[in-house]
Amino acid sequence: MTSRVRRPAITAAVGAALLGVMVAAPPAASAATGTAACQAPGVAWRVEYQTQDSVYGPVLTATALQRRTLPGGAWTDASTETWELRRDNLPSETPGGFTQEPGDLSTLQGIPVVTYLSPRFVAPDGACTVYTYPFSNGSANQPKVVAVGDSLTASLNDATYNQTHIQGYIEGNFNAAGIRAEVEGQSGKYWLAPPNSNGQPRTGIDKAAYELLDEVRGLLAHDPDGFVLALGANDAGQTAWISDAAERQTRLDAAKAAIGQYVAELTAAGKCVVLITPPDNLARYWGSDPWLYASAAQQLTHEMRSLANASATDLVKLQDFAEHSWDHHSYMPNNPQVWFGSDDIHLNAVGRLAYTSEFAQAAEQCV
């Protein structure tokens, strides 16, 4: 069986395998095959693939793309639809980010990806993402925890550290605690995607570009022990741009409902969910009113606290970064330890260590 453990160090030379060049691969006859799928309400998507050994480790190539209607539908060909292939960046690229390539099967099957870069395929409707080799770190018998978040989470990386732990500080700290990680830290992510430029709800892959529900659904298929969800700052900031109070509240209510959707889907599957609250003190979100940002963020924080407190099964838990960070903003007089940069949302070096600790503590609640 192919090892699922990532190599401890990565070199730039592996880039050749990521750009469609099959490096030192054996003949096709020796290729192993596999399938992976994801599921969303009313639909499932599946990727068939093959892996071949190379000097960089196993290299994966898609061989078939399929769809079926739930419940009970048969698998049908989806190879002519537009999917999106993603893989983790190398440390020499943007550490902790990902590279993406849209296309149908004829395009994507020409792009082999080494498996320790977690190749995954966003489904054409954006409802879920098919992960082929997640949690490729740690040992196979260790518990698995998913960590997803916005630019605060994405900042928990650096080019040197990611040479050893390609998904950054969270992966390294989870592994140190005996936990396997799959990390999705992406800038500009929301609980609920904002409207498009015409004021209409986003759909398909466009919607998936602003949310993390497709990733969460895809990773659920790999039976992790828990999910750590850290979103809300962008929802609060986007709401703070709205001048009309009633419209602001409508937007916030929709975001709170979206939090509930994540929680409902995961707890229905019996999964532990830890909600990390966003910074909710005064902050300068891209020119918005700091007071409106704080008001919106505090409503979202209250919703997360309420969901955790109301959990009858104790599957929903809280890691209250809003509370823990309250006195660590740049404008606090005589503050011995500031965690934030000048906008009081994004983290400085000290804050990144503190935020990493929040994730580590959150994961421990699920194992």
Automatic annotation (TrEMBL):
Every SGNH hydrolase-type esterase domain range: 147-351
Coiled coil: none
Gene3D superfamilies: SGNH hydrolase
Domain of life (superkingdom): Bacteria
Keyword Signal: yes
InterPro entries in alphabetical order: SGNH_hydro, SGNH_hydro_sf, TAT_signal
Signal peptide as annotated in the record: 1-31
Keywords noted in UniProt: Signal
Pfam families named among the record's database cross-references: Lipase_GDSL_2 (PF13472)
Record protein name field: Lysophospholipase L1-like esterase
